[in-house]
């Protein structure tokens, strides 16, 4: 801040005239020294009235000395350095005459040779009091300001500037306000002098004894840091009270800056003192511990880490890195910030399971029993796990033979396995991972990837960041304390991606058998072996998984359960768990098969069993409430009592199908969604118009194109399908796919749309027990589609009896359970014409006379006959009668 008075006084300007160089210290001369240097114009001493100077000796024309970056005020003294030849000539001429000189500041301090147009218009008449010549040929002189003047016409430009001047007397203000301004200026300057100890006390004392307001203002400003514009503005101000107001404003700002700087210095000094104090105390503590024979705390910590490094059995590169960081840590004081960073890093490094493994249980019979005990069905998954265990068993038994086979970086053995369970919610993907770990005798750990956006969550943060830590992969490995666990990565199809990186790309290194042997986390920065980990990922939908990531995994589909499988799961798993969770005893509640089938068919419609367990839990809570109130000792839940406990059914079964397809233009399609298979109704209607085609129902681009292709084919084949060409010419067609709020897309609804349009044009409804799926071409061919098993299971849940499939999907029926294939009739249609023929209701053969006699009764008879055929229960009979 304030170094010394010399630096402070000269610091308000880097240059004072057109060639100002080094500062020169020269105090204001005493009165006797002034007498030795007689000023011809006027003799100045302490008795002079500085506010009313005598201007009679000041000539009308003066030599003008441009100043660079400094302003000289009246009644103040200032040293100036002169170096340019024209300025030296000017000073020599002035000193040899009356010693009066005009000092004017240059507008541009960087200008080497300012001209008349480069100078401010107002300056100060000054007297040269002392003059010193140096060996370099420059001059240092002390000048004292006398009065202000305004530049007039320039008389000469060479060898130096001369101009006519007009003196500007000061406006002397009186009153209480100016006295208050003077006192405020003195008080603030005194506070500044106390904060800045380098300011000499003599200057403060000389200012405090001054009474003249103008003298106080100029003297204080002379010792302040000011911009050139601010300094010139004060000089040009005519009113004394206005000058003092400006001075007080500048002093207030300077005082605030100095106070803040003092506070910062105090805080920094306090922090330094605290660190030094802690350092001295630690050194004293070390000395005391050495005298007592006790170990140093820091050395003890270093030794503890060294022992942990030896016991961790790190890899060669990791051990080298750990010992290098430990050596750095041992030479750092414990108060250093890097000491804690290295300590945390080493703690993470030695805590990872570098050599900790669990022994696999290779008993195939035991593993099969565990898997069957925990999960019903899921034959494909169980077979894959048993295959993996069988391979591990053979490799362990034939270790000697395998060791004789040479290995290198390319032909090395891979131990881990990477599976991807794909299926709708509630089919047991996550719980299946726990069963696999129990069957193999391994530890199980789970990590959810849903909504993950930051790549650092996988690979960690680099140690250059504050608060850096490893990624969640190594954090999970540290928690499980084993290098060969069953590691489940849930919701891999719901990974995010934004400006923070692509987590799916970061997972490639984790799930690639060729790369995960040397997985390198950004924080640990040494390779860690993940090749022995059994990774299992779960997903509801394969389409959102990036293809490079999907290519690394072995996909196993869990399509869903049939009604019989759900019944068995409820008996073996869900009911015992809900009885236990709701505080009931096994003899206090029981379920009949008919009751469970009612819950499955009319209160749930899902691929899994999650909602089924919720409904069973509702039944158990109702019974638990009655038992707790003492109104019931035991409940036998039968079919008729289900509605008493659960209320009205959520689904109507085949009744909804019969009602929705009772009019022409409505067909039942089969869809594959992230939550399993489902049925959807495609509705078409016609209205008078001019051949417009409207599509609604939140349809995607592919589905809209399928609809247009279906319409084009049906119109082109009007003769073959026995359709009236005038129907298309005089009507607008509107195709809608409920529910409108749910987005839909895909090509597999093409055949359903074509059948719905044909039904509308022929005026014949589609059979209520028929569902269909397939992609349609413009030539009427039906192409194969995916998700056959899921769609067939959805048709079975909805009560459909016939399913139309493309011929090339016949082989996919091998994945469908036998009980479903026995209950559904599969018709393989190669063209749209075949589908229309199989799907539409057959016309009843009647004579022309009967049709003419009762034209209005035929549709009613057909509709009643169709609904009468579907009657299986009393509820269905009532609904059919109501619809008729």
Give a short synopsis of this structure.
The chain contains 33 helices and 24 strands. By secondary structure, the chain is of the alpha/beta class. The longest helix is centred in the first third of the chain and has 53 residues, at 240-292.
Give a structural overview:
This protein is of the alpha/beta class and 884 residues long. The protein contains 33 helices and 24 strands. The strands form 7 sheets. A 5-stranded mixed beta barrel has the order 1-3-4-5-6. A 5-stranded parallel β-sheet has the order 8-9-12-7-13, sandwiched between helices. β23, α29 and β24 form a beta-alpha-beta unit. α9 (297-312) runs parallel beside α11 and α12 (364-374) runs antiparallel to α15 (429-440). The radius of gyration is 49 Å and the shape is elongated. 34% of the residues are buried.
Strand order of the largest sheet: 1-3-4-5-6
Radius of gyration: 49 Å
Total beta-strand segments: 24
Share of helix among residues?
40-55%
What are the defining features of this structure?
disordered N terminus; alpha/beta; 884 residues; five-stranded mixed barrel; elongated; 45% helix; single chain
Secondary structure: elements and pairs:
Elements: H1 5-10, H2 31-36, E1 61-67, E2 77-82, H3 85-95, E3 100-105, E4 122-133, E5 139-156, E6 161-168, H4 176-195, H5 201-208, H6 213-222, H7 228-236, H8 240-292, H9 297-312, H10 316-330, H11 337-351, H12 364-374, H13 379-397, H14 399-403, E7 417-422, H15 429-440, E8 444-448, H16 456-459, H17 472-480, E9 486-490, H18 503-511, E10 519-520, E11 527-528, E12 534-539, H19 547-551, E13 554-557, H20 563-581, E14 589-591, H21 593-602, H22 610-629, E15 635-637, H23 639-646, H24 654-660, E16 666-673, E17 676-688, E18 693-696, H25 701-716, H26 725-729, E19 731-736, H27 750-762, E20 770-772, E21 775-776, E22 782-783, H28 788-798, E23 802-805, H29 818-823, E24 825-828, H30 832-839, H31 848-853, H32 857-869, H33 874-883
Parallel strand pairs: 1-3, 7-12, 7-13, 8-9, 9-12, 14-15, 18-19, 20-23, 23-24
Antiparallel strand pairs: 1-6, 2-5, 3-4, 4-5, 5-6, 10-11, 16-17, 17-19, 21-22
């Amino acid at each position: 801040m304030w170094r010394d008075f010399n630096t402070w006084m000269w610091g308000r300007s880097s240059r004072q005239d057109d060639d100002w160089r080094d500062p020169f210290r020269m105090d204001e001369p005493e009165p006797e020294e002034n007498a030795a240097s007689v000023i011809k114009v006027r003799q100045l001493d302490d008795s002079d009235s500085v506010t009313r100077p005598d201007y009679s000796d000041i000539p009308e024309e003066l030599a003008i000395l441009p100043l660079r970056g400094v302003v000289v005020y009246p009644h103040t003294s200032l040293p100036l350095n002169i170096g340019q030849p024209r300025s030296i000539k000017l000073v020599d001429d002035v000193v040899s005459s009356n010693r009066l000189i005009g000092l004017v500041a240059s507008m541009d301090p960087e200008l080497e040779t300012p001209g008349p147009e480069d100078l401010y218009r107002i300056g100060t008449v000054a007297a040269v009091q002392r003059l010193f010549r140096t060996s370099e040929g420059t001059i240092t002189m002390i000048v004292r300001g006398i009065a202000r003047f305004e530049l007039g016409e320039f008389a000469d430009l060479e060898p130096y500037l001369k101009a006519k001047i007009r003196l500007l007397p000061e406006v002397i203000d009186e009153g209480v306000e100016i006295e208050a301004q003077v006192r405020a200026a003195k008080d603030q300057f005194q506070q500044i002098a106390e904060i800045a100890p380098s300011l000499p006390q003599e200057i403060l004392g000389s200012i405090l004894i001054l009474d003249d307001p103008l003298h106080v203002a100029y003297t204080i400003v002379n010792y302040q840091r000011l911009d050139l514009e601010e300094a010139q503005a004060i000089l040009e101000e005519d009113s004394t009270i206005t000058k003092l107001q400006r001075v007080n404003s500048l002093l207030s700002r300077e005082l605030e800056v100095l106070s803040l700087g003092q506070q910062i210095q105090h805080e920094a000094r306090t922090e330094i003192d605290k660190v030094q104090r802690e350092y001295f105390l630690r050194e004293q503590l070390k000395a005391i511990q050495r005298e007592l024979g006790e170990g140093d705390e820091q050395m003890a910590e270093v030794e503890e880490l060294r022992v942990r490094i030896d016991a961790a059995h790190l890899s060669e590169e990791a051990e080298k890195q750990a010992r290098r960081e430990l050596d750095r840590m041992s030479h750092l004081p414990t108060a250093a910030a890097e000491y804690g960073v290295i300590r945390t890093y080493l703690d993470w490094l030695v805590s990872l399971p570098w050599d900790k493994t669990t022994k696999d249980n290779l008993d195939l019979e035991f593993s099969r029993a565990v898997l069957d005990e925990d999960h019903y069905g899921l034959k494909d998954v169980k077979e894959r796990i048993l295959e993996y265990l069988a391979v591990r068993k053979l490799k362990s038994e034939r270790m000697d033979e395998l060791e004789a086979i040479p290995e290198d970086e390319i032909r090395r053995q891979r131990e881990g396995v990477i599976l991807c369970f794909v299926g709708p919610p509630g089919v047991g993907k996550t719980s299946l991972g726990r069963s696999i770990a129990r069957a193999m005798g391994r530890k199980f750990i789970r990590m959810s990837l849903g909504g993950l956006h930051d790549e650092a969550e996988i690979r960690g943060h680099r140690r250059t960041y504050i608060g850096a830590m490893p990624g969640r992969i190594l954090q999970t490995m540290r928690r499980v304390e084993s290098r060969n666990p069953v590691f489940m990565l849930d919701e891999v199809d719901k990974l995010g991606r934004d400006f923070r990186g692509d987590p799916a790309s970061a997972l490639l290194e984790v799930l690639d058998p060729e790369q995960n042997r040397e997985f390198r986390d950004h924080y640990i920065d040494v390779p860690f072996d993940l090749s022995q980990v059994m990774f299992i990922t779960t997903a509801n939908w394969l389409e959102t998984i990036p293809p490079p990531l999907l290519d690394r995994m072995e996909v196993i589909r869990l399509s869903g359960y049939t009604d019989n499988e759900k019944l068995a799961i409820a008996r073996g798993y869900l009911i015992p768990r809900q009885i236990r969770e709701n505080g009931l005893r096994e003899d206090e509640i029981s379920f009949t098969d008919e009751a469970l089938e009612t819950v499955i068919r009319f209160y749930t419609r899902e691929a899994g069993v999650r909602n089924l367990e919720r409904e069973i839990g509702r039944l158990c809570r109702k019974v638990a409430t009655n038992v707790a109130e003492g109104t019931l000792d035991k409940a036998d839940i039968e079919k008729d009592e289900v509605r008493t406990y659960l209320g009205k059914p959520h689904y109507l079964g085949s009744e909804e199908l019969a009602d929705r397809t009772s009019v022409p233009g409505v067909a039942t399609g089969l869809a594959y969604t992230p939550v399993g298979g489902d049925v959807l109704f495609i509705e078409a209607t016609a209205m008078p118009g001019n051949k417009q085609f409207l599509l609604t129902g939140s349809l995607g681009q592919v589905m809209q194109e399928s609809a247009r292709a279906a319409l084009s084919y049906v119109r082109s084949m009007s003769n073959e399908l026995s359709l009236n060409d005038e129907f298309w010419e005089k009507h607008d067609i509107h195709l809608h796919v409920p529910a409108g709020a749910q987005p839909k897309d895909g090509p597999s609804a093409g055949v359903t749309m074509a059948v719905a349009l044909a039904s509308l044009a022929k005026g014949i409804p589609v059979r209520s027990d028929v569902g269909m799926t397939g992609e349609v071409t413009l030539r009427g061919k039906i192409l194969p589609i995916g998700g056959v098993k899921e769609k067939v299971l959805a048709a079975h849940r909805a009560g459909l009896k016939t399913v139309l499939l493309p011929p090339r999907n016949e082989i996919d029926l091998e994945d469908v359970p036998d009980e479903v294939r026995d209950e559904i009739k599969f018709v393989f249609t190669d063209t749209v014409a075949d589908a229309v023929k199989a799907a539409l209701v057959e016309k009843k053969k009647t004579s022309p006379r009967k049709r003419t006699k009762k034209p209005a009764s035929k549709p009613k008879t057909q509709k009643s006959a169709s609904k009468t055929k579907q009657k299986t229960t009393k509820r269905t009979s009532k609904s059919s009668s109501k619809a008729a």
